[in-house]
């Protein structure tokens, strides 16, 4: 009997040197560095460089990278024109999918997939995505876009493009930590999608567009948006027990909980939860946090299921003032670094990804002659 691995659960399909998700030690390292230490000591730009190059940048490398990145933030007319014609209420992940497709269509070097060209495209998407997401956050509210500011770093620039000014340091920090934590997570569904497309020797824009489609799903990146809908459904902390009992009876998956690899808790959650607690220290979100804590405690007690990174990140993005449909685009702004690092790694020793299936349909049979089919 053929052994079937549905969802490829537990199946090791290739090696990688980019990150290690360690279920035993419940830890995550990027190129050998624990992600918690990267959050405490690095900017997101430095982590992006680390994922692409395997080492943290020197001061000179960082300065050169920042100069290139800051000069690539502005959108060309092709992309900005296309995005302005999209329906005002379309999902922002559809905007991102469209934007990347237009970037590819507008790039005369689209088909060149050597490392230098792919690295340049990776940096270009990394630089432009904040401009696209910030413009979309404002477009949804009927506001004109704010231009990127080359004098500001990645996080400060993105936030000022969203709200017109750099917010308090605590918000900038919480946002930057979320970008570092979301950046990379080995062969998750969207990254593996990017590697499958790359394995056919298709272009990087096609691989990223496919990965965006995978990330949008609520079982994956779309969960951070769904967390807020769950917390909004629950009237108060006192309602959590009854709500959860009914939800589990209805066989619902509780968004922001569980993980295919981490079974004793997502190693990234404590770091992001600490940032969320700082954002709520002023007591203005006590009701939300009471529900937040009550649901996490009940899920652990009733199902022994821990929160994943989307659980603290959803409320944190809400408290930073982002519209809920913008949450997964924020995840994507970060994960473009991991995706493109994996795309370049796949090409280093490529093999077409083509698994097998076990046929369980009807046995072979002859097609009936003419009349018999009527
Ligand atoms: C991300 O892979 C990655 O690394 C992804 C990610 C990344 O950085 O790229 O970490 C980002 O996608 C995090 C996950 C975000 N998704 C959600 O929060 C959606 C809710 N979570 C579930 O859908 C689920 O936990 C998955 C999809 C994340 C994992 O699914 P699995 O591996 O199929 O779950 P499992 O086999 O461990 O489940 C075991 C049992 C099942 O019950 P039975 O059918 O055996 O009775 O636990 C149940 C599941 O139904 N279960 C849940 C649950 N998660 C698992 N029940 C209710 N709510 C949940 N959240």
From TrEMBL:
Catalysed transformations (reactions): oxaloacetate + acetyl-CoA + H2O = citrate + CoA + H(+)
Pathway: Carbohydrate metabolism; tricarboxylic acid cycle
Single biological process term from Gene Ontology: tricarboxylic acid cycle
InterPro entries per record: 2-MeCitrate/Citrate_synth_II (IPR011278), Citrate_synth-like_lrg_a-sub (IPR016142), Citrate_synth-like_sm_a-sub (IPR016143), Citrate_synthase (IPR002020), Citrate_synthase_AS (IPR019810), Citrate_synthase_bac-typ (IPR024176), Citrate_synthase_sf (IPR036969)
Example of a GO MF term: citrate synthase activity
Residues at the active site: 259, 310
Record GO cellular component, one term: cytosol
Domain of life the protein comes from: Bacteria
Gene3D superfamilies attached to this UniProt entry: Citrate Synthase, domain 1 (1.10.580.10), Cytochrome P450-Terp, domain 2 (1.10.230.10)
Keyword vocabulary terms for this entry: Acyltransferase, Transferase, Tricarboxylic acid cycle
Segments passing through the bilayer: none
Family: Belongs to the citrate synthase family.
Protein name in UniProt: Citrate synthase
Lineage of producing organism: Bacteria, Bacillati, Actinomycetota, Actinomycetes, Propionibacteriales
């Amino acid at each position: 009997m053929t052994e079937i691995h549905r969802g490829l659960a537990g199946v090791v399909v290739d090696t990688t040197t980019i990150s290690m998700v360690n279920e035993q030690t419940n830890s995550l390292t990027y190129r050998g560095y624990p992600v918690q230490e990267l959050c405490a000591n690095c900017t997101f730009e430095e982590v992006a460089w680390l994922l692409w190059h395997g080492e943290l940048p020197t001061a000179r490398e960082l300065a050169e990278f920042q100069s290139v990145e800051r000069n690539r933030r502005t959108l060309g007319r092709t992309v900005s024109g296309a995005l302005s014609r999209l329906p005002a209420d379309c999902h922002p992940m559809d905007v991102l999918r469209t934007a990347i497709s237009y970037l590819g269509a507008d790039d005369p070097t689209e088909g060149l997939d050597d490392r230098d060209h792919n690295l340049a495209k990776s940096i270009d998407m990394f630089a432009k995505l904040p401009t696209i997401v910030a413009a979309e956050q404002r477009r949804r509210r009927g506001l004109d876009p704010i231009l990127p500011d080359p004098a500001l770093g990645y996080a400060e620039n993105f936030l000022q493009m969203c709200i017109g000014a750099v917010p308090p340091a605590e918000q900038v920090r919480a946002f930057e930590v979320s970008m570092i934590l979301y950046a990379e997570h080995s062969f998750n569904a969207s990254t593996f999608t990017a590697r499958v497309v790359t394995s056919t020797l298709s272009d990087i824009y096609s691989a990223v567009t496919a990965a965006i489609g995978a990330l949008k799903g609520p079982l994956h990146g779309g969960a951070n948006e769904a967390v807020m809908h769950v917390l909004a459904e629950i009237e108060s902390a006192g309602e959590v027990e009854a709500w959860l009992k009914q939800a589990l009876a209805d066989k619902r998956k509780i968004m922001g909980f569980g993980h295919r690899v981490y079974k004793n808790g997502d190693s990234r959650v404590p770091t992001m939860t600490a940032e969320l607690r700082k954002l709520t220290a002023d007591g203005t979100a006590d009701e939300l946090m009471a529900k937040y804590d009550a649901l996490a405690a009940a899920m652990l007690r009733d199902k022994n299921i821990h929160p994943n990174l989307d659980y603290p990140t959803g409320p944190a993005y809400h408290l930073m003032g982002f519209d809920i449909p913008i949450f997964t685009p924020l995840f994507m702004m970060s994960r473009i670094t991991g995706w493109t690092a994996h795309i370049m790694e796949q090409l280093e020793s490529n093999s077409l990804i083509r698994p097998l299936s076990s046929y369980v349909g009807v046995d072979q049979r002859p097609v009936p002659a003419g009349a018999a089919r009527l």
